[in-house]
Fold Reverse transcriptase.
Amino acid sequence: MENCSLTNIGYSGQWFTWEKGRTRIHNIREHLDKGIANSPWWDLFPNFKLCHLSHAFSDHCPLLLNSNFGNQHSKQWYFKFEATWLLEESCEIEVSRIWAESLGAVPNKIKAMGVGLEEWFQKILKKVSYKERVGKVVASIE
């Protein structure tokens, strides 16, 4: 690889790409399959993503290379409820408020709920981050 000026491009997903043995005692997992590239390739595809997918019929995981990962303009938005939101005291109040204020049929209300909860939680994260920074400054002064 070094002689050809190639480097490993990294990956996302499970750490192994090859598996042998189905029982826990005899199972072996290795990271055998890799994506490699040279400098001109990196210049051509700066927004790539290499994923290790799950395998079913082979002992090797398929690799999926998306060469335009960062430039996807038509990305579908999906609502994902985060369990950590339940730890916040204001979560139940916020859910009730968003549901009551949203208009239309249930699918519209669910989308409004997702957007509203994400905005609400971002505000909470900013407050926590601000409090932590102020706390560190106060602690360093003392």
Q: What stands out?
A: The first strand starts at residue 7 and ends at 8. Residues 83-141 form one domain. The beta strands are 7-8, 12-13, 18-20, 28-30, 36-37, 49-52, 63-66.
